[in-house]
Amino acid sequence: MNTVTPVNVGVLFFEEVEELDAVGPWEVLGYWAHHVASFPVRIFAIGREAGVVRCSKGLGLTMDYDVEHAPRLDLLVHPGGDGTNVLQEDERHLKWLRELHGEGTLLASVCTGSLVFAAAGLLAGQPATTHWRYGQFFADIDTSVDVRVEERFVDNGTVVTSAGVSAGIDMALHLVGRMDSPEAAETVRQGIQYQHAA
I want to staple 6 with a disulfide (CB 3.0 to 4.6 A). Which of 40, 87, 106, 114 is the partner? Predict the structure, then answer.
């Protein structure tokens, strides 16, 4: 994706988000944006509301934008965590995800973020993964999802899902390879001194 138009990457934060679900992909995509990409990449923290978001282990983070005022996104990373229980029932949030998908934004989830995608109808008839403990919950949302909890991440073209917590790092490296090049992804991997999970 060589371009002079900035590529806009958003990482979603919400109350009770799992820290590494969000910060792991942020590290990968941020390293790519600041040290590797040969074209402009901007990365933003996006909250459901403006201000500080309190994560599941107590980490507080200040958002760049709320959902209503976020710039156009080429990629949105939707983490998991206990806060996704609320999001699965939040029609405003699900409508926003459907709108992004319809506009061509690449959607990527970590852990139980994929259950929110399923609730939005974005995984119907598609392969997807999540944390191994939560794969059974797809059946309560959409029985047509092809659940693959043994895979670290699954890319179905317009939606990418990853398994639990650290799997988001593998997925983010995959996204760098997809949006830039395999060489760029390898440079990022070396830069953050990360070894792929076996």
Answer: 40
